[in-house]
Write a structure and sequence with these properties.
With 111 residues, the chain is α+β, with helices and mostly antiparallel strands. The chain is built from three helices and four strands, in the order αααββββ. The two termini are 29 Å apart.
Amino acid sequence: MGPGVWLFANHPDQSVLLRDDLSRIPRAINEILRMEAPIPGFSRYVAYDYDLDGVLLPGGSRDRHYGATNHDSRQFPDPDRFDVPLPDKAAVTCCSATGRTCALDEPRPDR
């Protein structure tokens, strides 16, 4: 909760956008988690061989994730900008434990 308060205090324009359209709350939470990942690094067990953008992750291995992936300019047009209304951003990797990109997102059929 602290990072969200800090982000909205430092980006009052985003606070106004959220107040004007409360349907953006899930998107705002996702954006807070993207900007300030609660877990800066974690790994996942790779159950089967998986091609991740041309990199083979062998089954039985561990895939490491770091908060910095949420600031990848290849995935986010302006990765260091706190931007609540921007729809359909790339997958946020802060807290996924299943086939979801983030706890608040709908399951993705490709995962």
